[in-house]
Amino acid sequence: MTTEPGATRDAHLRADCTIDADGRIAFTFRSPAAAPGSRPPQLLLRPRPKKGQPEKVPHALDLEPLDDGRLCAVLEPRPALAEGRWDVYLLAEPGAARQRVRPGLRDLRALVDGQARDWPSPVAVRVPYTTKDGYLAVRAWLRTAHAEVEGIEVTDRTMTVRARLHGTTLADGAAVRLRLRGGDGVVRTLEPRVASDGRAFSFTVDYGELAVGQGKGSRVWDLSVQSRLDATASPVRLGRLFDDVADRKEIFVHPAAQIGAVAVRPYYTVDNDLSVEVTAATA
Amino acid sequence: MKISFLLHNAYGIGGTITTTFNLAQALAERHEVEIVSVLRHRERPNFTLDPKVSLTPLVDLRHEKEHPLHLRPARVFPVAEYRHHQYSELTDQRIGECLAAIDADVVIGTRPGLNVHLALQAPEHVVRIGQEHLTLGNHPPRLRTVLRRAYRRLDVLTAVTEADAAAYRRRMRLPGVRVEALPNSVPDPVLPAADGTARIVVAAGRLVPVKRYDLLIEAFALVAAEHPDWQLRIYGKGEEQDRLRQLIHRLGLYENVFLMGAAAPMEAEWVKGSIGAAASNFEPFGMTIVEAMRCGLPVVSTDCPYGPGEIIEDGVDGRLVPVGDRDALGAALLDLVRDDERRRRMGRTAMANARRFAPVPVVEHAERLMDEAMSARRTGRRTAPERGRIRNALVSQGFAARDTAHAAAARALRTVRRGQR
C-alpha cells in the first residue's frame, strides 16, 4: 500500500493513453477531471528517484479539453525522457495535491513491430505500463546506441543470439563482451558474426566457458557489444526494447541448460537487458 | 426499478464477474442497480465498476477468514455446489440477512448455489431470476437433484446459450418458471478495431486444463514452423502456468509463444492481434470470443459445448474446428495466417456480427424478462406458457430419476471407500 504524500485512493481517476511509432503519447481522461479554473489542470510525469537521491523536477503538460469535453495532454517525442520510470500524476489546479493516475486502456499497438524500424541515435524508447501497485507510469530508455536482441536459440550447451545495432555500426575488431556482475572486471569476449550492413550480428555463447570456476550460489553475466577495437568506445548493452512489453522478465523466459552441476539460462533483467545466469545446483 | 445482483466475488477475475459488471452497468443507465458480493478479499475489484452501480460485500476475507462461523460448512449453500468449500455458516447467515432485508424489486443470482439461496430465502414480493453461467449437462447429478427442487421457486431461469436453455427445459421440470437464453454482453469497444496487419494470435482466459492452452500451443507450433515471425500471446493466470511454460520450452517455442500474465481490461491487448483463438474442451458461453470479435478479430475456436457454435459462423466470421484436434486447429490458424485478405474480411464481418452481443440488445432482453416477471408476480400468475407439457414432464422425470440414482450411487461409493480406509 502506498503511503506517499499526494497519493490518491480514488479508483476513478483514470487515463487512457495512446502512443504512436514516434513515441508521442496522448493521455486522455474519460470524464472531466477538474472544474474549469483560471489555469488548466496539468499532467505531471515524475521521474522515480533512485534510492537516497533527491526528487527531480517533474515534466508538466497542460491538459486541454477535447471537443467532447474530455481532457487530453500530449507528450511530444522531444525532448526525450531520461532513462527510468516516470510516474503519472494529475495536478487538478496549481497548489493542489498531485494525485496518482490509474491506467485505463493503453493503446500500444504502434509499438508492437518496433524491431522493423531503424532507431537513430540517441535511441529513445517509451512504453506506458501499469506499476505493480496498479498505477500508470511510463518506462523510458535513453541510450546513445542500443543492441536489440531479435532472437535467442538455446541448445543444451550453447545459446545463439541474433541482434541488431541501432544508433551506431560495428567496425573491424568489434567484440561481444560478457561481464561478470560484481566480478572486479572479469570479462569474456567473443567475436560476433557481422552482416555486411554493420548492424545485424550474431554470436554463440558456449555455456561451458561461463560455468568454469562457478562456486556455490549464482553468478550473472551482463552482455554488451563493443562496436570497434578502440578500447575507448563504450560497450553497447544488449537488450530487447522495441515492442510493447515494459517488463519482459517473466514473459520472455528461456529454458535453462544443465552443464554438469550448474544450470545456465539467458534472461531479461528488470530493465529488459540481456544477461546470463549461472546457478550451482542445490544439492 | 431496483435490481440487485448476488455475486460470488466481485473482486476476482472471470467471465461471470465481467458479464455481471457489464449487465449491471448497462442496467444502471435506467435503474437503481447494486451488486452484492458474498466474498471480498481485496480493496478494489480487478475490473473497474461504474460508480453508478453500488457494491456491497458481505464477508470480508481480509479480516473474517478466521470468524468462528466461517470455519463451519455452509448448510443453505448446497454441498454439491462447486464452491461449497468457500461458503460457510457465516455466508449462509449474511446472505440470508441480506435477502430478508432487501429492498430490490428484482434479485438476480449468478451461480447455482446463490440461485438456491435466492429461491429459498428471497421475500415473497421480490422477483427471483437465477442465472446459470455454467451448464446443466456439466453439473454433477447431486447438484442437479438439488437444483431441480429449488429452481421451481424462481420466476425466471436464464442460461447463456440456447443449447443450455433447451437442456433445462428438457431435463428439469420447472412449472411456472420461464427458462430463456440471455447471452453475455460485451461493452462497445472504445479503441479503433484491429486492422488485421499484426502478426499476433491472441488468446485469453484462466490457465486451467479445460481451456486446453496446451492444445493451442501445440497447434501454434504448426504456424510458427511456417511463419516464424508470428506470435501467440496467451493472457491469464492459473494452475497450468508452469506446465504450459514447460511445453513451450519443450517445443522450442520460447520466441513465439508468450504467457503474458493477466490483463484487465483485454481490449487494448486484442487490438494488437489479428486473430483470436480458443481451444477449450468446454465453454458455457465464450466471452473472450465475443470480446475478440467486437475488436475486429476473426476467432478460431473449437466447436465445444455450448457457446462457440452460437457465436461463430464457421468460415464467415471465424472458424470452428473439432474439439481436441490439434491438426485441425493448427490448419485453421494457418489458413488465416496465410491469407491476409481473408483474415481482414472475416475480421470485419466478426465485428459486425458480434454487435448482437452489445449491451443494448442484451439489456433490452433482460428488461423485458424482468418487466414480464414483475407483472406476473403482481397478478399472482407465475408466467411461462408451457408447450408439450406432459411430454416434458415425463422426460424430465426420467432425468430426475437417473440423477437421483447417480447421486445415490455416488454417495454409496463414497461410504464404501470411507469404510475401506
From TrEMBL, chain A:
Region Disordered, annotated ranges: 30-56
Low complexity bias spans: 30-46
UniProt keyword list: Transferase
Molecular function GO terms recorded: transferase activity
Protein name from the UniProt record: Transferase
TrEMBL record, chain B:
Gene Ontology molecular function: glycosyltransferase activity
UniProt signal peptide: none
Record key words, sorted: Glycosyltransferase, Transferase
Transmembrane stretches, start-end: none
Entries under InterPro entries matching the protein: Glyco_trans_1, Glyco_trans_4-like_N
Xref: SUPFAM superfamilies: UDP-Glycosyltransferase/glycogen phosphorylase (SSF53756)
Glycosyl transferase family domain location: 195-350
Domain of life per record: Bacteria
Domain Glycosyltransferase subfamily 4-like N-terminal positions: 13-186
Name under which the protein is recorded: D-inositol 3-phosphate glycosyltransferase
